[in-house]
Amino acid sequence: MEYDVLVVGAGAAGLMTAIVAGGRGKRVLVVDHANRAGKKILMSGGGRCNFTNTATTPANFLSANPHFCKSALARYTPWDFIAMVDKHRIAWHEKSPGQLFCDDSSKQIVRMLLDECAAAGVRVEINCAVSRLRATETGFGGDTPLGHVRAASVVVATGGLSIPSLGATGFGYELAKQFGHAVLPLRAGLVPLTLSGKHQERFDGLAGVALPVEAAANDASFRDALLFTHRGLSGPAILQISSYWEPGTDLRVDLLPGMDAAEALLEGRAERPLAELKTVLAGLLPRRLAERLCEIWLPNRPMRQYRDAELRDIGAQLASWPVVASGTEGYRTAEVTLGGVDTDEVSSSTMMSKRQPSLYFVGEVLDVTGHLGGYNFQWAWASGNAAGLAV
């Protein structure tokens, strides 16, 4: 079997690469070892797929080279993908500022991508792993259950290690190393944090409690919801900061973001001098959390018994509450994989390897990781478009 392009991975980036290359008249074969195309797309956004973010900028991505993503993102914008969605008459809505979701189901996005592949003459094969991929005089050769495949170009669109239950493996990183590429250290990103020992015991029984916070670590901060779990902390604010936090890193949470906590407590004392601190805090925070704070950390007594300095100190604690996390829940629940193929060895305009001609890397396998909220899909579409135009 001979093709112009062999795409390894039928996820967001791989299918986009195939659509663009097929649209240019290239003979394209997409293979994936999983039993279904676009499995990560299907489960994303609670089954409704947060397929892009209209506020996408290079600043929404982590990479050892923060400039690498600029070219591809500039040449394929959220509005370009929205145009495809609209062409297929898929209804969508904006859930949070910039975050776009399907009204109905993420299955519509996968169906759209497969229909676009079919229209471009792309062949997509699932339950089809590739092995013994080698460079040849005319391109590449590899073995598949379908037989030996020869292709002028190969696109590695294998994703990262996140959510192995969906079929995630390190195959893309192995291919990169095989052809001489460096792979930067990998770790789980956009992932819940775990607590252990006394730090977990102190929050025992708060699972299900949620509140708006601002989480900060390593000069990054995110204002969104925090959710207590049986194992630790989750919610969008924690998922976001997890990409910047590492064990030993100072992690702080403002429990009353956008509010002067000290002034709120001083006002509470003036209005309700006989009320206890936990009662006043329960008007500012979820009751169960307020009570726990006063059980373990904060002295609880009638508000009139606190001096100004004491209330200001409590306010400062609430605005910068230290969280001692023991780790993360790991790849099992992580939405993305941080690190990946070193972008210094890949062309930012074409996604082609600088070490192996006609070998391309797109999507999550590269050291480019987006924030929560549709940015990683936009990187998949943009990097896939760049490679599709170049193969």
Helix content: 25-40%
Number of strands: 21
In round numbers, the mean pLDDT is 97
CATH class of the largest domain: Alpha Beta
The CATH architecture of the largest domain is 3-Layer(bba) Sandwich
The main β sheet shows up as:
7 strands, mixed
Total number of distinct structural domains: 2
**Unreliable segments of 5+ consecutive residues:** none
| Morphology call | elongated
- Rounded to the nearest angstrom, the radius of gyration is 24 Å
* SS class: alpha+beta
Report the β-strand fraction as a percent range.
15-25%
CATH superfamily of the largest domain, by name, is: FAD/NAD(P)-binding domain
* Number of contiguous helices: 13
Ends distance: 18 Å
CATH topology term of the largest domain: FAD/NAD(P)-binding domain
Account of the 3D structure:
By secondary structure, the protein is an alpha+beta fold. It folds into 2 domains: 2-187 and 337-390, FAD/NAD(P)-binding domain (3-Layer(bba) Sandwich), CATH 3.50.50; 193-328, Beta Barrel (Elongation Factor Tu (Ef-tu), domain 3). 31% of the residues lie in helices and 25% in strands. The chain is built from 13 helices and 21 strands. It has helices at residues 12-23, 39-43, 70-75, 78-87, 107-119, 171-178, 197-201, 236-242, 261-271, 277-281, 287-296, 308-319, 375-390, and strands at 2-8, 28-31, 50-53, 61-62, 92-94, 99-102, 123-125, 131-136, 139-144, 147-156, 183-189, 193-194, 210-217, 220-228, 232-234, 252-254, 321-322, 327-328, 336-341, 359-361, 369-370. Strands 1, 2, 7, 8, 9, 10 and 20 form a 7-stranded mixed beta sheet that branches. The protein has a 7-stranded antiparallel beta sheet with strand order 17-16-13-14-15-12-18. A 3-stranded antiparallel beta sheet has the order 3-6-5. Strand 1, helix 1 (12-23) and strand 2 (28-31) form a beta-alpha-beta unit. Helix 1 packs parallel to helix 5 and helix 9 (261-271) crosses helix 12 (308-319). The longest helix is centred in the C-terminal third of the chain and has 16 residues, at 375-390. It is elongated and about 85 Å long. 47% of the residues are buried. The mean pLDDT is 97.
